Predict the 3D structure of the following.
Amino acid sequence: MSIGQKIYQLIEQFAVEPTFWKQFTNAFREVLVDQGAADDLAHKMASIAFDALRLHSGNDYHLGMVEVIAMHPEFEQTMYQDIAAASAMHKYMTFCMDLNHMQLAAGYAEH
């Protein structure tokens, strides 16, 4: 499974059970560390992501995560301290965009 898919699945799990802080942050951290990110930065990113997603007002947590990646100053600053972490977030966003395009294409094919 690609890094983008792994992060996507974590966000999907969060959408179902947003109260499992320890599970989410541990899994998020592990995915980043497995990609070569420093453990302390990965943990910080996981905590920031959890807090931001918990406060996200919409139902689309993937959009919420994209907003965190693109616009959360502390997350962005932390992410750009580690090339592996930044690469993982880029791969997640690319996976989301590719999936969205496939879903749109499938929808158009049905009409």
Notes: The helical segments are 3-16, 21-34, 39-55, 61-71, 73-79, 83-110. The radius of gyration is 14 Å.
